[in-house]
Every structure is written in structure tokens, then in C-alpha cells.
Amino acid sequence: MRPIVLLASLFVLSACSSPVPKPDPGQAWIELYTTASDLLMADKLDGERLNDGRYFQVPPGAHELQARFQFEVQGGGNLMSEPIQRTCEIRVRYDDFQAGQRYRLEARALVMSAQAWLYDEQRNVLARGKVLRCGIF
Predict the structure, then answer these.
(1) Can you give the pLDDT at residue 7?
(2) First CA to last CA across the chain, in angstroms?
(3) Order of strands, edge to edge, in the sheet holding 48-49?
(4) Contacts for 76-81 with beta carbons within 8 Å, 24 or more apart?
(5) How far apart are CA 71 and CA 134, in angstroms?
(6) Cα–Cα–Cα angle for 83, 88, 93, nearest 5°?
(7) What dihedral angle (degrees, nearest 10) is formed by the CA atoms of 118, 56, 33, 42?
(8) What's residue 74's pLDDT?
(9) pLDDT tens digit sequence for 93-124
(10) pTM for this one?
């Protein structure tokens, strides 16, 4: 049983270490950003699950992006308790993605919830993320 678990772990880690593909100039590229202690991963594009959660790459036009944001919060309400991992599902809708352009989806923790914004290359806010749900899942 132990070799199977080890093999599965290596497979998962190898997927994370593979290089990110070059952006397709015919599509928009959306990079994901959060602080080093947190994790922001692409989950769905227009309702369809993605194979690689490190980025979104979309054709021009309107799209709905869904991402998972994980962060730690102090558990149990006192400072001596262990932190707990919290996950929020965030949805961002934007109607005007342009081919060849780079965008950035940023997320940060807000007490027990999250905030997210979609920026263009000039750091203009294009859309605000909507938190769909948060919890320990």
C-alpha cells in the first residue's frame, strides 16, 4: 500500500513542477496571484473544470472564471489554538477579454472570507470577484 501512496504523491508533485506553457497570442492569459502563504488555483472556466489550476487562458470575449482560494485562519477563537485551513470559491465575470493581453486575478483573505479582483496590465480594476462560499472543505 505504501508504494502506491508514494507513487501517487510523486505523480501529483510532478504535475505541479511542469513548466507553464507559453501564452497563445490568440487568447487572453490570466495569471493568478496571492501572498506566498496562501494558495490561489484556477478551478473552472465557463463552468468546465480545468486540468491545470496555475492559470487561465481564454479566447477573446466574455468569460466566467472560478478559482479556489486557500488560506489559514486562527482556529477556535483563541490565540493558542492551531490554525485551520479555509477554502473560498471565488467567481469573476468579465465581458471583454482581448487576445494577446495579460490579466491578473488577485485574492486575499478578509477575516474568515476573501476578496478578489481582476486587473489589466496597467493595474486597472476590471472586475471584482464574488465569493460563492467559504468553509473547511
Answers:
(1) 44
(2) 26
(3) 48-49, 39-45, 61-74, 83-97, 130-135
(4) none
(5) 11
(6) 155
(7) 110
(8) 81
(9) 999 999 999 999 999 999 889 999 999 999 99
(10) 0.81
Q: Which three cell numbers stand for residue 24?
A: 497563445
Could you tell me which residues come within 8 angstroms of residue 74 by beta carbon, excluding any fewer than 6 positions away?
81, 83, 84
Please count the residues of the chain: 137
Bridge partners of residue 3, in order along the sequence: none
Strands 102-110 and 28-33: parallel
Opening angle at CA 87, ends 39 and 124, nearest 5: 60
How far is the C-alpha of 53 from the C-alpha of 28, rounded, in Å? 16
Show the cell assigned to 76.
Answer: 477556535
Question: What are 77-89's pLDDT values in tens digits?
Answer: 666 778 889 999 9
Using CA atoms of 94, 61, 38, 18 in order, give the dihedral in degrees to the nearest 10. Answer: 180
